[in-house]
Amino acid sequence: MEFADGVRAAIFYEPGRLDDFETDTPGAFLIGKGTVHAADPTGRHSSFTLKLNGVSRKVPLPAGEFAGQNVMARFSFSIPVSGRKMRRARQTEATDT
Predict the structure, then answer these.
(1) 13 DSSP 8-state letter
(2) For the chain, where are the alpha helices, taking DSSP H only?
(3) At CA 49, angle to CA 56 and CA 61, rounded to 5?
(4) Using CA atoms, how far apart are residues 61 and 68, in angstroms rounded to an integer?
(5) What is the pLDDT of residue 81?
(6) Is the four-CA dihedral 57, 7, 77, 15 of positive or negative sign?
(7) Which pLDDT tens digit goes with each residue over 33-48?
(8) 82 falls in which pLDDT band (50, 70, 90)?
(9) Burial annotation 21-56 (CB, 10 A radius, 16+ → b, else e)
(10) How does pLDDT run across 38-81, given as a tens digit for each residue?
(11) What is the pTM of this model?
(12) Is 66 helix (H, G, I), strand (E, B) or coil?
């Protein structure tokens, strides 16, 4: 399901993938542009390994009386820099030091 703001909701009964999102553990997910809200309603798992846009994160899950509650994972994406711009940036850094 996709909301008007682009956030997607998904429930996985086994590890799986949805477009640019991947999980190694079943669960309920709200997938945003740079964040994922995740929950293991069964409370049986200790962590998720989530991947969004190629960036992978291991996310610990609540235990004990908090098991089954949701957690939020933030993902940072870097923008590729061309070799030419990167060389200039390195030269500038070297000059500044």
Answers:
(1) S
(2) 83-96
(3) 130
(4) 8
(5) 56
(6) positive
(7) 899 999 999 999 999 9
(8) low
(9) bbbbbbbebbbbeeebebbbeebebeebebbbeeee
(10) 999 999 999 999 999 999 999 999 999 999 999 999 988 665 55
(11) 0.75
(12) helix
Phi-psi region of 42 (alpha: psi -120 to 50; beta: other; left: phi over 0): alpha
Q: How many residues does the chain have?
A: 97
- Measured on CA atoms in the order 73, 71, 48, 9, is the torsion positive or negative? negative
Q: Which two tokens stand for residue 2?
A: 């996709």
Q: Is 19 helix (H, G, I), strand (E, B) or coil?
A: coil
**Distance between CA atoms of residues 50 and 59, nearest Å:** 7
Amino acid code (one letter) for 42: T
Return the structure tokens found at 45.
């798992």
